[in-house]
Write a structure and sequence with these properties.
This protein is mainly alpha-helical and 97 residues long. 49% of the residues lie in helices and 4% in strands. α3 runs antiparallel to α4.
Amino acid sequence: MRLRNLCRRIGTMKGTIMKPDWNDLIADCFCYGERAFAEHPSDEEAAFQLLSQLRQRHIGWSTFSGELERQLDGMPKLNAKAELARAHLYFRKWLLD
């Protein structure tokens, strides 16, 4: 894990651990653009954490997929259309709309 991301995740404020926002977790599901969505067990764990946050916040597929597409534009090694489809297969049972 990159030090910058680790520091962002562990960041503390007045002794409490801050949770990253759901859109900050997307890159973790792709090993920062190096692998396909949830291809590695650590990426799959990140995808599960992301899904948990999306469901807790009542965020549906349309909102999530828009942010996912935006972030995939910054991952030139990956085929955005294929990765969007892969994420849809992974999340389709759990995210509504």
